[in-house]
Amino acid sequence: MSTEQQIVALAGRLREACRITVLTGAGVSAASGVPTFRGAGGLWKNYSAQDLATPQAFRRNPALVWEWYNWRRELVAKCAPNAAHHVLAAWSRRFPGFQLITQNVDGLHERAGTEGVLRFHGSIWEVQCWERCPSSPERWRDETVPLVPLPPRCPYCGGLLRPGVVWFGEAIDPEILDRSFAAARCDLFLSVGTSTVVHPAAGLAHEAKRHGAFTAEINPEETPASELVDISIRMAAEQALPEIEQLLVTSDRSAGA
Ligand code: OAD
Question: Are residues 63 and 144 in the same domain?
């Protein structure tokens, strides 16, 4: 099947599906200027996850970890959602059985107006008390850029504040995990812009397949999911999704005419 035929086939499946679940990763925000983690120019090429994205790293050097998160917050604050975010936001409003799960912490899906986003790895715009002090909420929003002093302090107890993200070695919020795996049991599961190597998120496509969903992937590179899915579209998200949307909108118009 040519890429064009794959696009048409996926649009057809989207039109028919009742429950549509989309899992996104860093590739969806690449066109907005947010660096991905792996691949050429990926963050893990120049930075060590062990030094910056684990509870041990934070315990060792909270100022260094916060310096990195402040840099990312500043970078993302200057970025805007791209065409891929906008198409997914439109689908979240149009399809009643639509669920977006994202591994991204940048908040660009929400800024595009996507409804009901499940944030699998949390948000860089949220913070938590490192000590989980009893007077503080579990997590709260703070969009200050940069957060000072370094490291910033919990306004409730004066202890350390931490980013509201999931680090390597930490558990996914059990409610988000349950809701995401329930959403994977759908009619159509689409994976967009993720290397599909970080678990448990990488297991969602398997769950969908096991449940009998039609599965698809949009990624310019091959991933471990490529062999599993029914359709693997080798394109950038910001190109493929608007093409699919164009087909959906055109067929809606002709059906209504
Ligand atoms: P990765 O950086 O691992 O993968 C990004 C994927 O996006 C790659 O497969 C690229 O080929 C693809 N890509 C690049 N540009 C694209 C574009 N324009 N359109 C579509 N795809 C494109 O990012 P994730 O899979 O999101 O976790 O990484 C998963 C997790 O690993 C992250 O949430 C983060 C990271 O370490 C934590 O921090 C816990």
Answer: yes
Q: What mean pLDDT do residues 108-117 have?
A: 98
Instruction: Return the structure tokens found at 67.
Output: 């310096």
Q: Does residue 191 sit in the same domain as residue 242? A: yes
Whether residues 116 and 243 share a domain: the answer is yes
Cα distance between residue 87 and residue 54, in whole Å = 33
- pLDDT beyond 70 at 12: yes
Q: Residues 159, 193: one domain?
A: no
Tens-digit pLDDT profile for residues 58-69: 999 999 999 999
- Indicate the residue type of 149: P
The token duo for 50 is: 């062990």
Residue 68 Cα distances to 128, 150, 179, 239, angstroms: 17, 11, 30, 30
Residues 6+ apart with CB under 8 A from 241: 83, 84, 87, 88, 192, 218
211 is catalytic: no
CA 247 to chain centre: 24
Q: Is 35 in the pocket of ligand 1 (CB under 6 A)?
A: no
Element (H or E) spanning 219, and its range?
A: none
For atom 18 of ligand 1, the residue with the nearest CA is: 236
The finding on whether 231 has its CB within 6 A of some atom of ligand 1 is no
Which residue segment(s) compose the domain that 20 sits in?
1-33+81-121+172-257
Q: Of residues 85, 121, 206, 211, which has the active-site annotation?
A: 121
> In this model, does residue 254 exceed pLDDT 80?
no
Q: pTM for the complete prediction?
A: 0.96
From the CA of 213, how far away is ligand 1's center (Å)? 23
Same domain? 179 vs 213: yes
Domain tally, the chain: 2
Same domain, 228 and 152: no
Q: Are residues 67 and 10 in the same domain?
A: no
